[in-house]
């Protein structure tokens, strides 16, 4: 898997992790992977729902030391 870009949204609260994710994914081409790091627990539902509605693929969601890490493949 080739992660093309990483978004650091740690310390930001809703809706900023989603706003930063949307902006970053717009800069990618189809099939490229975006990695998002956030400490906002609400992002678990927000980013998963947004990816589904937008047609992007949530490849992985994990938590490491209080940081949620998302891997999203652009549609």
Strand line-up across the major sheet: 1-2-4-3
How widely separated are the two ends? Answer: 15 Å
Q: How many helices?
A: 2
Overall domain count: 1
- What overall form do the CA principal axes indicate? globular
The average pLDDT score comes to: 96
Order of helices and strands: EHEHEE
Fraction of residues in H or I helices:
25-40%
CATH C-level label? Alpha Beta
The CATH homologous superfamily: TusA-like domain
CATH architecture identity: 2-Layer Sandwich
Q: What is the CA-based Rg, rounded?
A: 11 Å
Low-confidence segments, given as residue ranges, are none
Tell me the total number of β-strands.
Answer: 4
* Sheet/helix structural class: alpha+beta
CATH topology: Translation Initiation Factor IF3
Characterize the largest beta sheet: strand count, sense, and whether it forms a barrel: 4 strands, mixed
What does this structure look like?
With 75 residues, this protein is α+β, with helices and mostly antiparallel strands. The protein has one domain (3-73): 2-Layer Sandwich (Translation Initiation Factor IF3), CATH 3.30.110. It is 31% helix and 37% strand. It contains two helices and four strands, in the order βαβαββ. A four-stranded mixed β-sheet has the order 1-2-4-3, covered by helices on one side. A hairpin with a 2-residue loop joins β3 and β4. It is globular. The mean pLDDT is 96.
Keywords for this structure?
alpha+beta, Translation Initiation Factor IF3, globular
Topology:
Elements: E1 3-9, H1 16-26, E2 33-38, H2 43-54, E3 57-64, E4 67-73
Keywords: Transferase
Family: Belongs to the sulfur carrier protein TusA family.
Domain UPF0033: 7-31
């Amino acid at each position: 898997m080739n992660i093309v870009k990483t978004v650091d949204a740690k310390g930001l609260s809703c809706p900023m992790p989603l706003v930063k994710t949307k902006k970053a994914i717009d800069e990618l081409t189809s099939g490229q992977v975006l990695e998002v790091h956030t400490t906002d627990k609400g992002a678990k539902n927000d980013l998963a729902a947004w990816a589904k509605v937008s047609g992007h693929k949530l490849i992985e969601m994990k938590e490491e030391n209080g940081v949620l890490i998302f891997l999203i493949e652009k549609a």
